[in-house]
Amino acid sequence: MTTAVAAPPLLEDTDLGPKAGGFYRRQNIWSGLGFGIFLGFVAWLVSHATVQGSNWGSDMVVTCTMVGWVIGFNIGIGTFNAPIRWMLGDDQTHEDELYAAGVGQGRSRYFKYCTDHKVVGTQYLVFTMALFGIGGTLAMMIRTQLITPHSTFLDPQTYNAIVTVHGMIMIIATIIMVSGPFANFVMPIMIGAKDMAFPRLNAMSFWVIFSAAPCLLATFFLGGVNAGWTTYAPLSVQAPPAMDAFAMCIITFVVSVTVAGINTIVTVVTMRAKGMTMGRLPIFTWGAVVGGALGLYAMPAFLAVMTMMITDRATGTSFFVPQVGGSQWLYENIFWIMGHPEVYVILIPPVAAVLEIASTFSRKPVFGYKVAVAGFVAIAALSIMVWAHHMFTTGWAPNLAAPFMLTTELISIPTGIIFLCTIGTMWKGSIWTRLPMYFVYLFLWNFIIGGVTGIYLSDVPADQYFHGDMFVTAHFHYTLLGGAMIGATAAVCYWFPKMTGKMLNERIGKVAFWTIALGIQVTYFGQFWEGFQGMARRVAQYNPKFEAANQMSTIGAYILMTGWLIFLYMMLHAWRHGKIAPANPWHSKTLEWKVPTPVPLENFLVDPVVTSDPYTYGEGVPDGQEVPEFAPVKQPELVPAGAVPTEEPGDPGGAG
Amino acid sequence: MSFEDQVDEIEANTILGGQPFFSRAGGKIFIIWLVLTTIGVLIGIYAPHHLLTTFLSPEGGDVWATMVFFTVLAAPVAGFTYAVAIYSLLAWRHKGGDPDVPPPDGQPQRGNGPVTILWLGISTFLVVVLLFWGITVWSAQQITHPNTLQVKVTGQQWVWTYSYPGTGVETRTLDLPINRPVQFNITSEDVTHGFWPAALGVQVDANPGVITVIRSTPNKLGGFTVQCSQLCGLYHAFMNNKGAVVTPKQFASWLQGHGATPEAANQVADVDTSTDSTTAMSK
Prior knowledge:
A: 656 residues; Cytochrome C Oxidase, Chain A; 2 domains; two-stranded antiparallel sheet; 22 helices; disordered N terminus; disordered C terminus; B: 283 residues; alpha+beta; 5-stranded mixed sheet; 10 strands
């Protein structure tokens, strides 16, 4: 690595003076929590004094309290600082911007309204893991309840509340698990950008979703939502006030996802480096963009339906109450117009990450890059036309069964293309079986099972049996956990060295891998078995004839939990004590591996110029030379914090 | 050499090349594929047979046949993907050496038009077959038969109530005569429920304010359970009750036992007792 020109001073070393940042200096997560609780309390006091005692008083009070909490938290953390200063004609100075980006704040910037996309990505990663921790704990409670037919571990009320929150928290976590950490941390570097297009909106998207989570957990203390994560009306209209908190969580969450989706798309469209044409984008970037765009289509419907839900409950609008002129089918339609594209919002980014990883570890270009991109776009386009397959057995519009069967089955064509691209990338590659590649294989294994079982459910006569049955549960856990989440796990293993500067311990990782792989198969084959036998979903107790299958599933769930705990231990241990990672441990060719670790603020000291796509494996173009690679980014001799440069054997990438 | 030429050369050396078929990559993958597909087909045949609930109606038989048929169709595709993945681990995995040093680059193969088109063609063909199967079975189930037994089903938190128009019978158990088309007219008193007599292989939601319809023709004697398949609140898990498929005569007497007059029971059960009881006996 030659540094012919003296590196310019790092932005991180800028002395900002004692006043930079203005109000940001006083704000962090604690001021956010404090002001959020304060404003929530004020909203509770005011609404309690004014509307309590009316017909829908408690719904109004809960809604107002949650609105107060969300707005208060965001005022306290600093979401509104910059817009307000702009409106007052006192716009932020360059020093203020640098302070907001975390300059000079060390680790405390992770607990602040920080506009650096790498900080936001790391925040998302930790937050997603926390959500998975909560959702997984709830899942273990569900499985523990179901180990015997007439268990009294949980009463039915608690059980239903847990089923609801488990579902919703996992949906939220899986939506953000790739588009949060990696589309924020990695994607801008991949395309040669200095940051996201809207750094402040980026920070906002994180802190808004952060403030949504307590609303969801509050449902446990407000009577519990007994309607499942789909919260079908009219049951949800009659549910305890917890439902208002649930709906406020969704509304807040949708704001975050929308802001993040716009940010991702605008970043890729406008912030690409010189020479980074759309055809040269790393495939993961395409996945993030298509997923984000699909989210922009889908998520507003969720916001709309939950707003109508709140007005139904708090003001008696009766959109969804059939007894007074509403329609439960209206609810189900709007919900699934969101709900089906949403599963592809979850799925497309991790699948794209899998292709990226498969290419790196097969030392081959992505097979059929353009076909894969077309596949993503086709999946997204088709997915907005398939929603009513969730309603085959609701009795709504039986004449539409065949058209929706058609669109649903058509979607297996682009999905099949993605499989072809994955195995095509492996075809005659030099498979480098590092930890991320393990999870790529597991992804492939699970996702095919999830896909094939989906075909049965797309068939109306078979769906008439399987709808609302544990078979459906097993199917979507195979796709969302076994497919999407394992793909995201591969992405975690892949980008962990860049995000944290530490290498994962692959010996522990392989133990975790095999435990997780075994756990998934046992758990969900148990649930397929339950489904074959005809056990309904979401039941707290069941007929003893399902006992063997349930016990298999519960045992599998405990294996799976053990696997995730080992994986978590591996991550946390590596984060603190792991081996220092070189800048490019996988010898990958995408731009994020060409910058030093830890990545400096604004990523590139010299703007990269791109002359080819990052998949030049085996094409006789020497890595690190001028043609036709990315222009070499001048790398200062940076090593991760805490490392003594001379002790390291050096960056293997430098040897090439 | 142009890119297409490179691809051609790679293929000439791998799939179509000069070695005996089974020692080439394509041949070995073919063997793995054959084994996996056979396993898949066997699973497709035996798993539904042994694991599915006992169906008492042809609609349930449709579910069973669909499971078998779709699995047999999907097994070759899934088997091929697995075969390539497994073979890539067996043959193309980079072994030995420093695990921190990446293996040499693989073939710079950026795609393969004919293979992609073939793959697209196969998957499109399979989708058409699936769709044809689904629509055929579905439309056959939509045919209405004369002399259909009408049953009104009402869901409420957390019980099912069945009434048989013309008899005044209202029960919490669902008895049906064998080999008689039955139409369930389903509604709900409060929230959405899911009427799911699993052994009949059909279900539909019970919605407040509307009547939804499903049809079935039980063709085996036996008992079954009606479950609620749509989360409906506190005791959703307990919203199930018994049903049975019985002979018409048993059905008629069951109706009488629940308060129907003998005439109404026999008429609704379609049991001919007017003159020659011998005919009914011989059945």
